[in-house]
Fold:
Amino acid sequence: MILVLALRNLVLRPWRSLLLLAGFGLGVGVMITLLSIGEAMVVQARDEKLVGGGEVTVLPDGVDLELLKTGGVGGMWFSVANARFVYLQLLASPRLRPLVPAAAPQMEGKLVYLRGARLNEVAVRASGEIPSATRAVGAAPALERGVWDDDAGDRRWAAPNDEQLRHDIDHFHETPVGVRDPASWGEWHYFNVLSADHRRWAFLTFLIGGEVPRGQWAGQLLLTLHEEGRPARRYSRTVERSRARYSIHDADLQLDDSYVRVLPDGRYAVRARIPAEDGGAAADVDLVVAPAPRAYFPGTSLGSGEFVSGYVVAGLRASATGSVCVWTRCERYEEAQAYHDHNWGTWRGVTWDWGAARAGSYTLLYGRVQAPDSLVADAPLFLYLVDSLGFRAVFRPREVQYDDTRRLVVGTTTLRVPSRAVMLDVRGGDTLRVELDIEDAVATDTRSALAERGESGLARRIPRPFFIQMKGVARLTGRIDGQPVAGTGTGFFETYR
Structure:
């Protein structure tokens, strides 16, 4: 009966019937859509890719949060640069322990490629977590069988001992295939150490350079001994490749009978015998360099393709014990102020501004690298600050304001070099002012000599060829997180003229 009435109504009133049917269909469609959206929102609210099991998700700066609502964190294919440093020095650091009881690094849906001897390249999606950390934030999956615990790699990533950390951040590299000017590739361990009275200091470099390991390359030892008011004494030695040992997996470097080795407790054993360039007595170096806990810069690599410049500071604040001897005269150190970094890259036409200093309980590092053929007049400058709890802040001063009133004579050239320098920055409520008073400066003509943190003149063609190494006092003042910061101490600084 109902069917007959419906058919008769459709015949007698076709347009009205079609309008009613269309309205009914539209209403049903809207309802289905709303129910689907509601279900999707419930599913996303429970999605571990978006929530991660914790209360806060850490994302790279600049990520559009609205996009995350449609695909989740794992769907965006991004990663946090220097994630282990962020984890160790920020989220899991002693400074934030009262606020962050647990943190869990997670990687979801990362595109990786599987390759094997009997397997063609296959694209797959990979996920990675540290089981103990994931459990700590309440995101552990329900296990049907077996166990899910940290392995050695997990423990090394999340809680490395000092020896593991040194090897992970301070290991060596090889000359990339296709890089411009492979002969200008250089990589080195650099150390400096300061006497107790701050009047004498030493710069020491263990270097390998050239097309490593495929072409022509060799090692070199460089030492410069400085004393205020006196000319520097230089020592150098070349070591053929057959007597050099490096590794892309650890920080140890052997150049004949001289070496840098990481000890089981994370300190560096440094031994070297280096002849004087003027034919005088050789220098013998016997030091143990101990980096302070958490006082390191995790490293960065600039450039790609033809130009590469990498830099890491494994011992931003360190102490040295041992001796540097020339003939029967020795400079002995007992927990003296020291510093250690590691550089690698192609160095033709590259210049930089750099400095590292103690300032009371703080230690600062600043720098920038000017790439060859750069279209930017001045590369961005950074200033990195640590204290006893590790990383404290990063500032971005616009420039180093040098006051070039000191004069140096290099050969037949008289140079104006810095006597003072100032850096300033304001970032929201944080402010920082660093003043450098230069007490001693040495200039090297890079067209004719090998500098401790550069390479031979054959690989350098730069508008400002004089490499200036300075020692002085750094004074730091400012405010971070509403608290005043201040300190004064000695450091070393570099620039070009």
